[in-house]
Amino acid sequence: MNKAAATLHFSELLLTLLKGKTTLLDAFHILARDGIKRQVRESAISLIQIMKKGKKFSLGLKEMKNASIYYEPLYLTLIDAAEATGNLEKVLELIVNDLDRKKKTKENLIGILIYPVIIIFLAILGSIIIIYKVLPLFTRNGMLSDGFAQSAILGIIFAGIVLFSGAFILFFVYFKIFHNDSPEFRMFYLLNLLLENKITLSDALSYCIASFGHTKFGYNLVTVKNDIISGNSFSLAFNKIKKLSPYVHGWLSVAEKNGNLIEACQYIKNHYEVKDKHKREIATKLMEPALIILTGIYILIIILNVVLPLFTSIGGIL
Question: Is 142 found in the same domain as 128?
Answer without folding.
Answer: yes
